[in-house]
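**Paired protein data**
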Amino acid sequence: MGHLVRSAIETPVRDVKMDSKQIALISIFAALYAIGVVFLAPFSFLPIQVRVADALLPLAIIFGMPAIIGLSLGTVVANIFGGLGFIDIIGGTVANFIAAYVAWKLCRRNKVPFIVGIACQVVIVSMIVGVYISYLFELPLIVGITDIFIGTFLAVGVLGSVLVVIIKNRIQSAGIKNDTN
């Protein structure tokens, strides 16, 4: 029995190691997202919001977990400055984490076209954020979801798609391996 306990203690359940490149990417994504939201605050914290920084969410398809973690941390920081309170800090972070993770998992190794992952991101963010925005601003649920959908479609769907195409092309032309290869 003692050897089983000792073995369980000495053997990690999962080897989670991050190298300096991944930590740097997390920091860059967190900073870019937070700065983008806070700098453009007049567009970022209303019932109809276009968070230009949300255009970074589709980059999780290319960069994987460092982007997912970084964008989630950036959301926490940005929403602390936003003034909509605890609901927005937690809700926005959960929405962005789930949206980035789902798109990454779907599009990983080119299983499905990236546009499908981005469409999922638009729907996930619109539904989660739309629900609590309608509550915070005392709007009908359909209005809250629709308002967030419009801004998310523009930021994630349009700008994010362009960003993914540009970066994927740059990575491929440079011969760099990434999470979608």
Summary: Residues 133 and 144 are 6 Å apart (CA to CA). The chain has eight helices and no strands. The radius of gyration is 18 Å.
